[in-house]
Design a protein that fits this description.
Length: 191
C-alpha cells in the first residue's frame, strides 16, 4: 500500500508538471535605438557619418493583458566628450516622422520627432544621420557616445517598452613622419 501511494504521488506530480503552461519571456522591447556603426572611427579633418537607427517590433494592441502600444514620438540626448568629438550636423530627412528637430547643447545633441497619433510601422528605420568631427588636434582619443534623457511614447504619451544601446567614437592619430627635412645639402667631393 505504501508503494502504491508513492507511485500515485509520482504520477500525480508528473501530470501536474505536464499541465503547467510554460512561462516565456514577453516580447522584445517595442523600441530599440542604436548607433550604426556602434563603434565608429574617424580622423582629423574627415567627417564621420553615424546613423541613429530604431527597430520597432510592435504596433497596436495585443489584447487585454498587453496593450503593446506602438511608437508615435521620441526624444534622445546623445552625449560625447567635446575634447574628442563634436556633432556638427544632424540630418533627419529620412526619418519616418512627420515632424523632426534637433538642437546642439555643447557636449550633447538632442534629437526628437513626433508623428501625431500615427504609429510607426514595424521594422528598422533610420531616424538621423550624425556628422561627427574629431576635435583632438591630431592626437588619438576615445569617447563614449551615450544615449540619455530618452523616451519613446505611444499615442497616449505613455512610454513604451524600450532599449537604448550606446556606442563609441575613436579619433585616430594623424600619421606624421619621424624626420622632417627642411633643407637639402649637397656635398662636393675633391678629387
Amino acid at each position: 500500500m505504501k508503494l502504491s501511494l508513492l507511485a500515485m504521488a509520482i504520477v500525480l506530480a508528473a501530470v501536474v508538471l505536464m499541465t503547467i503552461v510554460p512561462v516565456t519571456a514577453g516580447p522584445s522591447d517595442t523600441w530599440t535605438c542604436y548607433l550604426e556603426p556602434q563603434d565608429s572611427t574617424g580622423e582629423c579633418d574627415a567627417p564621420t557619418i553615424v546613423s541613429v537607427k530604431i527597430n520597432i517590433t510592435h504596433t497596436g494592441y495585443y489584447g487585454w493583458h498587453d496593450p503593446g502600444n506602438g511608437v508615435c514620438s521620441y526624444q534622445d540626448d546623445i552625449h560625447y566628450d567635446l575634447s574628442c568629438v563634436n556633432v556638427t550636423d544632424v540630418d533627419q530627412s529620412m526619418a519616418p516622422f512627420l515632424m523632426s528637430m534637433w538642437h546642439h547643447n555643447g557636449n550633447f545633441v538632442r534629437i526628437l520627432s513626433m508623428n501625431g497619433l500615427e504609429e510607426l510601422p514595424i521594422g528598422v528605420h533610420t531616424i538621423a544621420n550624425l556628422t561627427l568631427e574629431c576635435n583632438s588636434s591630431g592626437a588619438p582619443c576615445f569617447c563614449n557616445m551615450t544615449q540619455a534623457n530618452w523616451e519613446a511614447n505611444d499615442e497616449d504619451g505613455e512610454q513604451v517598452s524600450q532599449a537604448w544601446i550606446d556606442g563609441t567614437y575613436t579619433c585616430m592619430a594623424e600619421e606624421k613622419p619621424d624626420l622632417v627635412v627642411e633643407k637639402s645639402v649637397t656635398f662636393k667631393m675633391n678629387g
